[in-house]
Amino acid sequence: MSDVADRVRKIVVEHLNVDGEKVVEKASFIDDLGADSLDQVELVMAFEEEFSVEIPDDAAESIQTFGDAVSFLTKAVG
Amino acid sequence: MFDLTGKRALVTGASGGIGREIAKALAAAGATVALSGTRVGALEDTAREIGKDCPILPANLSKLDEVDKLVPAAEAAMGGLDILVNNAGMTRDNLFMRMKDEEWDEVIAVNLTAAFHLNRAVLRGMMKQRFGRIIGISSVVGVMGNPGQGNYAASKAGLIGMNKALAHEVASRNITVNSIAPGFIASAMTEELNDKQREAILSTIPANRLGTAQEVAACAVFLASDAAGYVTGHTLNVNGGMAMI
Fold it and tell me: Function of this protein (chain A) (predicted)?
């Protein structure tokens, strides 16, 4: 498990108040983890802060699952 | 009764009239209040009347680059922001058939577009801290219309609709978004009315008097307080009964 994935999982668990074991690669924030659209915006804000990156709107929309977030952020902090 | 100790507020149009009274009332309830407006001297007068340290943040709200600097400046000056009062407003009256595009655009820009930008700018901080109070100063004219004020009425009705939409979006984050719609409030402008004009206006107001800026400010203090935590998307009409809606 990469360091990026750990940090992303921590944010997701804290923010959505879900069990860490449910935060798997294919887990959709909205469909599987109970997020609403505003939660999703807040998650992106939290990722931006944690990783000191800016996530443009079109990229933010493409981040639907835990795996999407990890792969985007892994590239972004590269 | 409504304690705002430790809260940080930004009031636009705080150089005079209703805005100055709102700033004073929020400060009197314990808030730190950043004052914005176009006239620095008048803002300094407001700060002196408040008698506490108030960040003074001059901005011309018809210029979006100045609008967009305002919230970051207020957050930097006070370490965050809990209360936003979109009070700044202007009129450019004209009969509809004669209204110029510039008159329309300028009023919409200052009264509505600036409020949109400021609302959007405060959300990130308020969402993170899970607390926020956004208050828009609308007008009875936005609710009822008024001849010669098509632009102003549109901007003030727009403010109410915008605030209701935003209230839906952020209610679950403990952020409330409300509007206050004052009726005829005593001001420098109403002092210029002659007796006949005054009579005509008063005949439409059941309370038979003009309102005071303090009476509007008191509503802002309530909506900003913890006591109003369950009030959102509301429009508080402060008009002496002139429009009971």
Answer: Carrier of the growing fatty acid chain in fatty acid biosynthesis.
Q: Which fold has domain B8-235?
A: Rossmann fold (3.40.50)
Shortest Cα distance, chain A CAs vs residue B78, angstroms: 21
| pTM: predicted TM-score of the whole model, two decimal places | 0.93
CA of A47 vs chain B CAs: smallest distance (Å): 13
CATH number at residue A35: 1.10.1200.10
The 3-state DSSP class for residue B150 equals helix
CB–CB contact B173 A45 (8 Å): no
Q: Is B128 on the interface with A (CB under 8 A)?
A: yes
Cα B73 to Cα A32, B60, B69, B83, B119: the distances in Å are 40, 14, 6, 14, 15
Rounded distance between C-alpha atoms, residue B198 and residue B195, angstroms: 5
Active-site residue, selected from the candidate residues A6, A36, A39, A57: A36
Number of domains in chain A: 1
What's the average pLDDT block by block, 10 residues per block, for chain B (245 residues)?
95 94 98 97 96 95 97 98 97 96 98 98 95 97 94 98 98 97 88 87 95 98 98 98 93
